[in-house]
Design goal:
Layout lengths: L2 E7 L7 H11 L5 E7 L5 H8 L3 E6 L13 E2 L1 H6 L4 E5 L2 E5 L2 H12 L8 E4 L3 H12 L4 E5 L7 E2 H6 L2 H4 L3 E4 L25 E4 L8 H8 L3 E3 L2 H15 L2
Parallel strand pairs: 1-2, 1-3, 4-6, 7-8, 7-10, 8-9, 10-11, 11-12
Antiparallel strand pairs: 3-5, 5-6
Helix pairs in contact: 4-5, 4-9
Bound molecules: NADP nicotinamide-adenine-dinucleotide phosphate.
């Protein structure tokens, strides 16, 4: 019997999720399984998609709908509820249940790469759905963090605050980009921080995986910082989504 899965987001053409699942289905001989990309100009279009595609058994959710999608769910996993963002939906008998696999995927990949000490601190750029998943992972790892936003009301700092006080970046070893700045096709963009303040002691993690080396990561690398992109996180969260759809 045909089984359909897919990704919803505002623009999904940049995503590697389809090629990841297409290769997985091929490798594992799952011939009746399909994964498609669904660009939804507004989240309300999800209703129409579900009506038109009754074979759908699971969805991934990407920018900018990880928070907005919550109101369409019949049920939400307690961990995703705590996080306040959903990136995986399981569909059964027409009912939608939301999960968050971004947080555990970020947790796993950060733990392997970042040498945590008692003094570890982090700065999170952006305050959207993936920033919420990152916050939950940092809480579990006991890494204190501060948020950076364009809007002072949403965070500890604005980008202007970072500019005015060079000690903020200098004193925080882990910098995580959860904004879409630099993501394909807008690859010339980058978060407006002072890269001169980065050092070889900094660990700079970009959740973006396409392109593999954003300008954000290139600038950090030029300062000698350790860098990591979001590709491993994407693969780990996708396997966790697969386990949810098939349990
Ligand atoms: N590797 C992975 O597995 C993985 C997983 C999740 C997400 N991601 C990537 O992470 C990125 C964000 O995804 P998301 O779902 O969190 O998106 P989102 O919910 O739309 O949040 C993005 C946040 O970035 C900030 N932002 C947006 N436009 C900006 C701009 N022009 N200048 C400065 N800041 C801006 C905003 O925070 P403020 O309004 O506070 O400034 C916004 O809340 C995407 O590139 C996505 O592909 C990767």
């Amino acid at each position: 019997m045909e089984k359909k899965y897919g990704l919803i987001g505002a623009t999904v053409s940049h995503s590697f999720s389809k090629s990841y699942f297409d290769e997985k289905f091929f490798r594992e001989g799952l011939r009746d399984y399909h994964y498609d990309l669904y660009s939804l100009p507004i989240i309300d279009d999800l209703k129409k998609l579900l009506e038109e595609t009754p074979e759908l058994e699971g969805l991934n959710v990407t920018i900018p709908y990880k928070e907005q999608v919550v109101k369409f769910l019949n049920e939400i996993d307690p961990e995703a509820k705590k996080i306040g963002a959903v990136n995986v939906i399981k569909i059964k008998d027409g009912k939608l249940k939301g999960f968050n696999t971004d947080s555990d995927a970020f947790h796993e990949t950060l733990e392997k790469w970042f040498p945590r000490t008692k003094e570890s601190k982090a700065l999170i750029l952006g305050t959207g759905g993936s920033a919420k998943a990152v916050q939950q992972a940092l809480k579990k790892l006991s890494i204190p963090y501060q948020m950076v936003s364009r809007d002072k009301a949403k965070a500890d700092y604005t980008y202007e605050d970072l500019d005015q006080d060079g000690k903020i970046i200098a004193g925080v070893p882990l910098i995580i980009n959860t904004t879409p700045l630099g993501m394909s096709p807008d690859t010339n963009n980058f978060p407006p921080i002072n890269y001169e303040q980065l050092t070889p002691e900094h660990y700079v993690y970009d959740l973006i995986y396409n392109p593999a080396r954003t300008i954000f990561l290139q600038k950090a690398e030029m300062r000698g910082s350790h860098i990591k992109n979001g590709l491993e996180m994407l693969h780990v969260q996708a396997e966790k989504a697969w386990a949810i759809w098939n349990n």
